[in-house]
Specification:
By secondary structure, the protein is of the alpha+beta class. The chain is built from 4 helices and 6 strands. Strands 4-3-2-1-5-6 form a 6-stranded mixed beta sheet. Strand 2 and strand 3 form a beta hairpin.
Amino acid sequence: MESNKHLSPSKAHGLYNIWSPLFQPLITESTYHWGLFASGDSPPSGFLLHATDTGREALDLYQEVRRVSDPRKSGTLVVVLKIANSPGLDALNRCASSIRLMDPRYLPQGESRWTCRVWIKEVLNSLHRNRYIHLPSGVDTIEQWCEYAADRHIQYKGMARVINDLTWMTTGSPSRATLSDADARGDDGRYYGSSPMVIDSTGGRYYGPSPMVTEI
């Protein structure tokens, strides 16, 4: 039986990494949209911070911050993973705005394009570097663990599980090679999510209708 703590709301002043799968025809691995959720004084409400192309051409990304009443009510999220204590919206905006999103001159080494994944990792690095938060590990390692946790919770799309501590980084193995088919798929064996964007835990492209929709 699933632990009740995974059904609980977010805690006050937490910073969470949120994962929402996108359906990609002919691709057998899940691909995710990345975001950050910061809870405030009255959880489960808080703020979503992400890079989106809503209202624009695919992959013409911009930073969006908006209020969210409860991430568990999202139609697309599968898991909400606490990563640190929230430094507050001002600090989050300051670091997020310092990232030169969409400027190819500022792409991190090894990345070929700006995506939500690349941007969130750079925001986390900036928050850590400026001592607003203390990351439990490097962002590449965190990415692997987040991906593993999201794959394990894929069947909870629309009923997002909230993990209010760092146990998700100590349970199991972050290697995709260790995932069982049941871990990596929903009940019907398919991956579902919102519409398009190149969202790239895997680097694959989603070819779908109109811009991305994040239902939180």
